[in-house]
Write a structure and sequence with these properties.
Blueprint: H1 3-9, E1 32-41, E2 44-54, E3 59-63, H2 70-78, E4 85-90, E5 93-94, E6 105-108, H3 120-130, H4 135-148, H5 164-177, E7 182-186, H6 194-211, E8 214-219, H7 222-228, E9 231-236, E10 239-244, H8 246-251, H9 256-261, E11 266-275, E12 278-283, E13 286-287, E14 298-304, E15 309-313, E16 322-331, E17 335-342, E18 345-352, E19 363-368, E20 374-375
Parallel strand pairs: 3-8, 3-9, 6-7, 7-8
Antiparallel strand pairs: 1-2, 1-4, 4-5, 9-10, 11-12, 11-14, 12-13, 14-20, 15-19, 16-17, 16-19, 17-18
Length: 378
């Protein structure tokens, strides 16, 4: 089957000719195993030797900037790109050489590719009809999928009679109707406006939790990945630079890149120095609490999230604290963002509430919440 046909079907398997026994995963083995996968375009590594295990039933997101390799990696798993090196397994079976239509995977694309002349009901049934399943089985499965995505009332409508969010749910129902071992989703919410995207994020999370199918999701939107994923594979320059649950990725980023890409962060230029007879991470002449240099020396980077800094008007009796000048404040409806100059750097502080406790021009003392500063890898 051509890629165009597969897109039109909304899956990577317009006709599912083979099934993969998922019993291989019963002992805890990953449902998808990627080993040493590399793909080069024009002499540049789009995917640079990636190793990855995807757990059964998880919602794993590939997150990263444009050009980091996340979509290429997803297309290699789907079979639309052949890797130059490495292998892909699903449920213990090597599928590296199999075409898309012979893989136990379905895919939801950015473009919904619904057939305009077919009703919602018939769009969902399309893949099962290609497989020549019995009519009663198709009708029951369509009803089940439409109920799952909460579109039973739209069954008789055509794609031009439903909203963008509803169309995306139809595409999802069509993909799930074929009962894939793994569902691949390539930035499926990009075309939706912000409010609808938020609703669809919750819907996708609900549906995935309800049916237990493994989801592998591609997005460049960090908030989207944080809201839905059980784990996030953060990618840069064709590599996975950190693989972790959302909370760990946010609180304990493994690198300067991870700290700067995920959420707002203050990246502090520090030095390891002797302070009171012990090695300490020092910023602006003051040791940062709770950081152990652990054999590091010279210049290092530390991260503090804006919400982990507390600011108050300096009293003049602020020995041992960071003191700077408030440059600007902006109100965001339920919190303030303050920019405070310390030396040659601007630090960002998030203060919850309707009113600000500090004003532009104030000398400000900063306190870091205990245990919240993180020493970053080089």
């Amino acid at each position: 089957m051509s890629e165009v046909a597969a897109v039109a079907d909304g899956t990577t398997s317009g006709v599912r000719t083979e099934a993969v026994d998922t019993a291989a995963d019963a002992g805890g083995a990953p449902i998808v195993r990627v080993r040493g996968v590399r793909k080069t375009f024009g002499g540049v590594d789009a995917v640079a030797g990636v190793d990855l295990d995807v757990r059964t039933g998880e919602f794993l997101s590939f997150l990263g900037p444009s050009g980091c390799g996340k979509t290429t990696l997803l297309r290699i798993i789907a079979g639309f790109e052949r890797p130059d090196a490495g292998s892909v397994e699903v449920a213990g079976r090597d599928i590296t050489a199999l075409p898309p239509n012979r893989r136990p995977l379905n895919m939801v694309f950015q473009r919904y590719a619904l057939f305009p002349h077919l009703t919602v009901r018939d769009n969902v049934a399309f893949g099962m009809r290609l497989r020549r399943l019995p009519r009663r089985e198709i009708a029951a499965r369509v009803a089940e999928m439409l109920e799952l995505v909460q579109l039973t009332h739209c069954a008789g409508r055509h794609p031009n009679q439903i909203s963008g969010g509803q169309a995306q749910r139809v595409a999802l129902a069509r993909a799930l109707a074929n009962d894939p071992t793994v569902l691949l989703l390539d930035e499926p919410l990009t075309a939706l406006d912000r409010a609808v995207r938020g609703d669809m994020q919750q819907e996708l999370k609900r549906i995935q939790a309800e049916i237990g199918t493994t989801f592998v999701y591609v997005t460049h939107d960090q908030e989207e990945a944080m809201a839905m994923s059980s784990r996030i594979a953060l990618m840069s320059e064709g590599r996975i630079v950190q693989l972790a649950p959302p909370g760990e990725l946010y609180r304990r980023p493994g690198s300067v890149f991870a700290a700067g890409f995920v959420g707002d962060a203050n990246l502090l230029r520090c030095r390891v120095e002797q302070h009171a007879g012990r090695s300490a991470v020092v910023y602006a002449g003051r040791p940062l609490p709770g950081l152990d240099p652990a054999g590091r020396s010279g210049e290092v980077r530390a991260m503090v999230r804006p919400e982990d800094l507390k600011a108050r008007v300096a009293s003049g009796d602020d020995a041992g604290e960071l003191v700077g000048e408030l440059v600007s404040s902006t109100f965001h409806g339920f919190f303030w963002m303050h920019r405070i100059r310390i030396g040659h750097e601007l630090l960002v502080v998030r203060e919850a509430g309707d009113t600000s406790s500090i004003r532009a021009g104030d000398a400000v003392a900063l306190e870091i919440e205990p245990g919240r500063a993180v020493l970053l890898a080089d």
